[in-house]
Design brief:
- The protein is of the alpha/beta class and 214 residues long.
- It has one domain (3-172): Lambda Exonuclease, Chain A, CATH 3.90.320.10.
- 40% of the residues lie in helices and 23% in strands.
- Strands 1, 2, 3, 4, 5, 6 and 7 form a 7-stranded mixed β-sheet that branches.
- A hairpin with a 2-residue loop joins β2 (52-55) and β3.
- α1 (11-17) runs antiparallel to α2, α1 (11-17) packs antiparallel against α4 and α1 (11-17) packs across α5 (148-167).
- The longest helix has 20 residues, at 148-167.
- The radius of gyration is 21 Å and the shape is globular.
- The protein starts with 6 loop residues before the first strand and ends in a 5-residue tail after the last helix.
- It binds iron/sulfur cluster.
- Iron/sulfur cluster binds at residues 18, 20-21, 24, 173-174, 176, 178-179, 182, 184-185, 188-189.
């Protein structure tokens, strides 16, 4: 694969959340902020500042450009820590990705982080066995080992992303609970905004509880 075939690494996150969302953003260039994406942007501000830090046995690179010709992906890592190995053995790369919210039931965050590790391995020519996810809501850092299963899922997801983009077809919408968390809900499903069912329920409940209700 060459440079012109590279797709954004961040698209993996969209793909694992919803193929239609991924196609709307990366094929149709649709985007919409909701409170969750705005919060995520603020969280990324420090990570995107390009600052490099060095503290003893730790070096920190921010907004580091990444690329993998094998996976056909390019992007940036929020933070890559480099931990000093024993004398003469160089530095161990350890990617850290900042996320809004809390750990999720699906593996999109881990796949995105693992894709960063696979890019680093290709660029540095050495293993990157683990990284971490930092969640804004819980303020917790979760270590993520890049085991064989996660690596396979990441490689399969990259291949699936390339097939989706090459096909050039946006999948049809299928309403699901996750749609209520989707920044594209009102563009994707304008007839069924997130609040309509809730408003209907609230109205019905108020009517049922009203003293003069039938
Ligand atoms: S609203 Fe639902 S189906 Fe539409 S893009 Fe978002 S998650 Fe996918």
């Amino acid at each position: 694969m060459d440079e012109s075939d590279l797709l954004p690494l961040s698209a993996l996150q969209h793909l694992l959340f919803c193929e239609r969302q991924c196609a709307l953003i990366h094929l149709e260039q649709v985007w919409a902020d909701n409170p969750l994406t705005v919060e995520g942007t603020h969280l990324h501000e420090k990570a995107d500042s390009g600052v490099q830090e060095s503290r003893g046995d730790l070096r920190i690179a921010r907004a580091l450009p990444l690329r993998s010709l094998r996976l056909g992906l390019s992007g940036r890592a929020d933070v890559v820590e480099f931990h000093r190995r024993p004398v003469g053995e160089g530095w161990q790369a350890f990617p850290v990705e900042y996320k809004r919210g809390r750990p999720k039931s699906h593996r999109a965050d881990e796949v995105q982080l693992c894709a960063q590790a696979l890019c680093l391995e290709e660029m540095l020519g050495e293993p990157v066995p683990a990284g971490a996810l930092f969640y804004g809501q819980t303020r917790r850092r979760l270590d993520v080992p890049f085991d064989a299963e996660l690596r396979r899922l990441t490689e399969d997801s990259a291949a699936r992303l390339h097939r989706l983009i090459a096909a050039g077809l946006t999948p049809i919408a299928a309403r699901a609970p996750k749609c209520d968390q989707c920044s594209l809900l009102e563009i994707c499903l304008p007839a069924a905004p997130a609040t309509s069912a809730r408003h209907y329920f609230d109205r019905a409940l108020r009517a049922a509880l009203a003293p003069d209700a039938e």
